[in-house]
Each structure stands twice: as C-alpha cells, then as structure tokens.
Amino acid sequence: SQLGKKIEMVLMVYDCEGLGLKHLWKPAVETYGEVLTPILMPTPPIHTPAPKIFPVAYNLVKHFLSEDTRKKVVEVLQKYIDPEQIPVEYGGTLTDPNGDPKCSSKINYGGEVPQHYYVRDQLTQQYEHTVVVNRGSSHQVEYEILFPGCVLRWQFRSEGADIGFGVYLKTKVGERQRAGEMTEVYPNQRYNSHLVPEDGSLTCSTPGIYVLRFDNTYSYLHAKKVSYSLEVLRPDAASAQQIQKLGDKLSE
C-alpha cells in the first residue's frame, strides 16, 4: 500500500565477493540450505560477482536450488531490475549522493564478524581415529550391525588431497574381502575432504558386517592421512518393526 502497487516478486541478490574455503564448512552450508530453501524455491537468486572459489561453493549448495533456479544464477541483473535501481558496483547506474558505487547508505552490507563476538579463536573438529592410507591401498573399518534400521554415521577429513570413501556389506564373514567381492551399499567416490570435512549416514536395512572403506588405490604417489569418527545409532522400536515388515515383504 505504501508503494501504491502490487508486489509480484521478491528478488534476492547474493554478493559472493570474498567467498573462500573458510566459509565452506559443510554443517553450516546445510543449515544455510534448510533456512533458505523455502525462499529460494519460488525466487531466482542472483550471484555477483563470482570469485574463483565459486564453482566449489556452488557445487555444495546447488542441491538446494531447483533446476530452473540454477539456470537463472548466471543471468544478468538487468533482466530483472531497472538499471537505475542497480548500484554501479553491480552493473547499474545507481550511486549514493557522495558517488559511492556500492550505495552503502541504501544497502546494509555484512562482512567480517567482529572478533569481540567470537566465543573461541577457532572451532576444531575432534576425531576419534587417525590413519595413514598408503598409496595404492585402502583402509577398511568393519561394523557388525545386529538389528535392521540401525544408522551408521561418519565424519572424516583428509590432509593434503582427496580420498575415496564408500560403504559395503560383506558377503563372507571372517575374512577380508576386496571391494569388488562385497555388496556396495553406499557408492564409492572421491571426496575433497581436505577442503571441506565430509559427513554422512546410512540406514542399514539388513543385519550383517558393514565395511566403511577409505580408498586411495587410485593414487600412485601419495599416502593420505585421514582422521575420522564413526558411530552406530540403534533404531527405536517402531522404526525397527516397520523396517522388518518391509524386509519381509521384499523377501516374499
């Protein structure tokens, strides 16, 4: 009513200048996605300018965006906003009365969090285990799952380079098996966990021996140091019964 016209669209602009690896902490990215997903679904965001690290960051957050939104990320601002309403900093003609191209009097920019707000100097993830995976080899960690519906959870990071990771179900008990001899239940792939710590989980529908495998077989030159934490969460009674019923139906 104040503008005297109907507002049909809200446009969100993300200034990615200064984005770096220190911002790509996966739990924070996931929280960011949960908060913004309801907003981003109907609204095309615009990112400008995009630094060199943007492709890495975009790969982390792109699953929060619809396919249509992804295509619109690279479109120019002028397609949605009158150039007279866009600061010169972003390709428009608008400036502050003092000539500021970023229009700081109109836009409340964020920036670095003042250090007096810090609770501690650095947030460090503590891991339960550390292992060196030699070049051309792998490291396997076995967990026996007794009940269907148990959840395997993991967190890990590597030093210096990426590492492969996958989860398998053993087909023979009491002996070490190669990856190709086991049933793959969580696809093996390489993770840039030297840049961003990796975490994930798997709901085990079948009891058995599960193998969490850190894969460095593709590296002919470098060993990889990996720090990790693993845990198994038991299902509640209701979930266990539902999974058991589903398993019974599949076996009929």
TrEMBL record:
InterPro entries: CRAL-TRIO_dom (IPR001251), CRAL-TRIO_dom_sf (IPR036865), GOLD_dom (IPR009038), GOLD_dom_sf (IPR036598), SEC14/CRAL-TRIO_domain (IPR051064). Residues 120-232 form the GOLD domain. One of its GO terms (cellular component) is cytoplasm. Residues 1-98 form the CRAL-TRIO domain. It comes from the Eukaryota. This is S14L2 protein. It comes from Pedionomus torquatus (Plains-wanderer). The lineage of its organism: Eukaryota, Metazoa, Chordata, Craniata, Vertebrata.
